[in-house]
Amino acid sequence: MGMKVPEGWQPPPGSKFRPAVKIDLAKIPEIPKPTIDVIFNPARWLALGRLELTLPWPPTVNTYFTRFKNRTIISRKGKAFRKRVVEIVGRIYSGLPLSGPLNVSIEAFPPDKRTRDIDNLLKATLDSMGKGGVYLDDSQIHDLRICRRSVFKGGKIVVIVEREERKGLSSRRNAGNPT
């Protein structure tokens, strides 16, 4: 526990001490819930080795991070998105995080027709899914694909996580390399 600072007390001039800042969580903007929240069938996941999630539109990598006292930290918008993803994943997947190599496909349904860099959606999405317990770490992802789709009011992303199949990979890898 920290020391209580008397009301009205000010740090001495030149001091690096600053009292802790209180954050009103009610003022953090709520990320709108998508109309199609989650598509999941446990029996299908076990049979196909595939997990399909419908998530809210993520913040871009440009707004996911912020600077604070010479450090880069996750922004309020980023924390709100991550919290929402952890809630969604917690409702539908309570198993152990997936291990081994994974393939991830993302379909991005933007909230409007503005021009966007589609690759800026990846960081927040993949980190949040890892935090939610889908996989141990996003370094497990061996094949990552993202595709822009039509406009969807409020925006959403559909993420499909599959275990990487080892069969047939060698033929794809060596397709252009005659040895």
Put the structure in a nutshell.
By secondary structure, the chain is an alpha+beta fold. It contains 5 helices and 6 strands, in the order αβαββαβαββα.
SS field, number of helical segments: 5
Structural classification: alpha+beta
Tell me the CATH superfamily. Answer: Holliday junction resolvase RusA
- The residue-averaged pLDDT reads 77
Give the SSE layout:
Blueprint: H1 42-48, E1 50-56, H2 61-64, E2 65-68, E3 71-74, H3 76-92, E4 102-109, H4 122-131, E5 141-148, E6 156-163, H5 169-173
Parallel strand pairs: 4-5
Antiparallel strand pairs: 1-6, 2-3, 4-6
Helix pairs in contact: 3-4
List keywords for this structure.
60s Ribosomal Protein L30, Chain: A, alpha+beta, 179 residues, two-stranded antiparallel ribbon
Describe the structure.
There is one protein chain. This protein is α+β, with helices and mostly antiparallel strands. The protein has one domain: Holliday junction resolvase RusA (60s Ribosomal Protein L30, Chain: A, 2-Layer Sandwich). 24% of the residues lie in helices and 22% in strands. It has five helices and six strands, in the order H-E-H-E-E-H-E-H-E-E-H. The strands form two sheets. It has a four-stranded mixed sheet. Strands 2-3 form a two-stranded antiparallel sheet. A hairpin with a 2-residue loop joins strand 2 and strand 3. The longest helix is centred in the middle third of the chain and has 17 residues. It is globular, with a radius of gyration of 21 Å. About 4% of the residues have low confidence.
